[in-house]
Structure to design on (572 residues):
């Protein structure tokens, strides 16, 4: 698969003498030809590589997503009301007869202030790395975050009104003078907007903490800030056109409902790892989506007189309903699969302590036989039943393997994906049972039975 | 009508049994046909293990050998002297300017150079 893609790309780049050795390494080994292992400095060089390990198409897509997310966050109730305030602040500057360039400079300072606030967060998350990641995944934290989200969701649905503390709104609306103030105003926007953009930020923080790269953390949060600040800046530069901005009227109420549903969904999303049945979270989420589609599209009377708005409402509602029905049916139609544990050194130690034999599946998202194994073999009724006698562990090799995983790969001499290995409770592999391609359920079942006999 | 249904059901059952009984060799042949079809579509050539062995033992520096597997796999073990280019087979990677420039850098300016991917 991989070498096919590489070879055909090389051909398209104009290289004329391209070959593919389809049998690859296994055959080479079998023929007893010379092999070598990677340099011993592998771990060291990995550590020093830093940002280069995440630079790539993935990073660009992530940054674009984060940027768009930043722009979208302007519609949240914490930020939207601030737009006129900020705009009038900048507008006031232009009236004082200064040149446009001067105004732009103020705007840039404003965005820098905002970025500094957020980027500090990002870099901290990256530097504390695993610690932050594991704190953010602790059940108590998950429950706390989830209840905050639930609280906010109810606020958006209008059950109660959450107001900015008055000292904050006064800080924001205070009229400033000088460049330092533009900068400071950006800083405060970061704080004031926090309740609304919090969940989004927590998600990003978790991601950054997992990568553990300060520059990556900085980039992510810098991009977010630019997305967040840009609409405000542009509007401010054309402060005269401020009255063209849609009034925060009835339709904003609908946007609030949208965010209410999103918050509710996120509250469930954060609890997902805590549900005993793995699919439970997904099923609940799908039903929330269904309910939100019905509510947003058809069950509210907001903006009856605005024809375009009603059309948008219906369209969004119908689209959400369609998608959620699709998801619900695909989940319910699929038979339950093997319940896997995600690999970590703790999980592995516990598994060995439990005295059950262990099955480890090494897979990657792009690998077709891996997906086949999961969809067919690991969803087979008999395999699922038999799997209860084992500890089932999955190792995701889609992205770069971290140190723990690299050790595991070395220990069991894993060469590629898919690889499924059978271990006795002591952790020794039953080598003859190893699976390195798709195999049907019946064959896998036989291997499981052999493994149980030891 | 009923007869037709019965016959087609029987036929279907027969077909499913016969595919289940497919031997490993047949499966291998099927896989190999796929590889050949892919090569034709991709516009490159296939090299047999024997042929590769011959040119490799004669002069390993006469061609560029590129390992396209993931980095961890390359680090663990690769053909002696092989270079590495992690090529995730995604749609995006086929068109990504970054992958393109990486590959150009690795393969160099000589468009006639013999390159073997695995």
């Amino acid at each position: 698969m991989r070498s096919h893609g590489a070879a055909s790309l090389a051909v398209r780049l104009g290289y004329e003498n391209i070959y593919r050795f389809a049998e690859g390494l296994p055959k080479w080994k079998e023929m007893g030809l010379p092999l070598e292992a990677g340099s011993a400095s592998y771990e060291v060089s990995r550590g020093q590589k830093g940002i280069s390990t995440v630079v790539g198409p993935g990073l660009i897509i992530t940054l674009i997503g984060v940027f768009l997310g930043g722009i979208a966050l302007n519609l949240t109730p914490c930020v939207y009301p601030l737009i006129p305030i900020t705009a009038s602040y900048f507008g006031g500057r232009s009236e004082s007869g200064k040149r446009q360039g001067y105004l732009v400079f103020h705007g840039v300072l404003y965005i820098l202030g905002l970025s500094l606030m957020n980027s500090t967060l990002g870099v901290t998350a990256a530097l504390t790395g695993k610690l932050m990641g594991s704190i953010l995944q602790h059940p108590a934290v998950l429950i706390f975050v989830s209840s905050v989200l639930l609280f906010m969701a109810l606020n958006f649905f209008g059950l109660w009104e959450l107001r900015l503390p008055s000292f904050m709104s006064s800080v924001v609306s205070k009229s400033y003078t000088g460049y330092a103030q533009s900068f400071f105003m950006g800083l405060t926007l970061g704080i004031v907007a926090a309740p609304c953009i919090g969940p989004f930020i927590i998600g990003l923080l978790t991601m950054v903490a997992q990568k553990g790269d300060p520059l990556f953390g900085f980039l992510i949060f810098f991009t977010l800030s630019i997305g967040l600040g840009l609409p405000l800046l542009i509007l401010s530069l054309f402060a005269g056109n401020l009255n063209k901005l849609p009034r925060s009227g009835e339709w904003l109420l609908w946007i609030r409902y949208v965010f209410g549903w999103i918050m509710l969904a996120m509250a469930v999303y954060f609890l997902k790892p805590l549900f005993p049945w793995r699919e439970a979270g997904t099923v609940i989420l799908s039903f929330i989506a269904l309910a939100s589609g019905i509510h947003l599209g058809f069950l509210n009377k907001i903006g009856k007189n605005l024809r375009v708005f009603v059309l948008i409402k219906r369209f969004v509602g119908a689209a959400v309903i369609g998608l959620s029905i699709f998801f619900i049916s695909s989940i319910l139609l699929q038979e339950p699969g093997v319940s896997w544990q995600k690999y970590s050194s703790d999980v592995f130690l516990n598994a060995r302590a439990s005295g059950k034999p262990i099955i480890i599946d090494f897979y990657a998202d792009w690998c077709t036989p891996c997906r086949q194994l999961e969809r067919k073999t690991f969803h087979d009724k008999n395999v699922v039943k038999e799997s209860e006698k084992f500890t089932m562990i999955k190792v995701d090799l889609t992205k770069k393997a971290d140190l723990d995983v690299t050790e595991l790969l070395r220990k069991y001499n894993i060469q590629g994906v898919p690889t499924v290995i059978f271990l006795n409770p002591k952790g020794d592999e039953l080598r003859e049972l190893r699976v390195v391609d798709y195999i049907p359920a019946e064959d896998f079942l036989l291997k499981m039975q052999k493994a149980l006999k030891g | 009508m009923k007869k037709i249904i019965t016959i087609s059901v029987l036929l279907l059952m027969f077909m499913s049994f016969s595919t289940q009984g497919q031997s490993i060799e047949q499966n291998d042949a099927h896989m190999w046909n796929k590889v050949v079809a892919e090569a034709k579509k991709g516009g490159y050539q296939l090299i047999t293990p024997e042929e590769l062995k011959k040119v490799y033992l004669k002069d390993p520096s006469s061609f560029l050998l590129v390992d396209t597997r993931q980095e961890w796999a390359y680090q663990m073990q690769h053909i002696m002297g092989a270079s590495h280019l992690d090529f995730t087979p995604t749609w995006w990677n086929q068109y990504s300017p970054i992958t393109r420039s990486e590959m150009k850098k690795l393969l160099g300016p000589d468009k006639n150079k013999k390159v073997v991917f695995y």
Notes: The longest strand of chain A covers residues 358-363. Chain A touches chain B through 53 residues (CB under 8 Å).
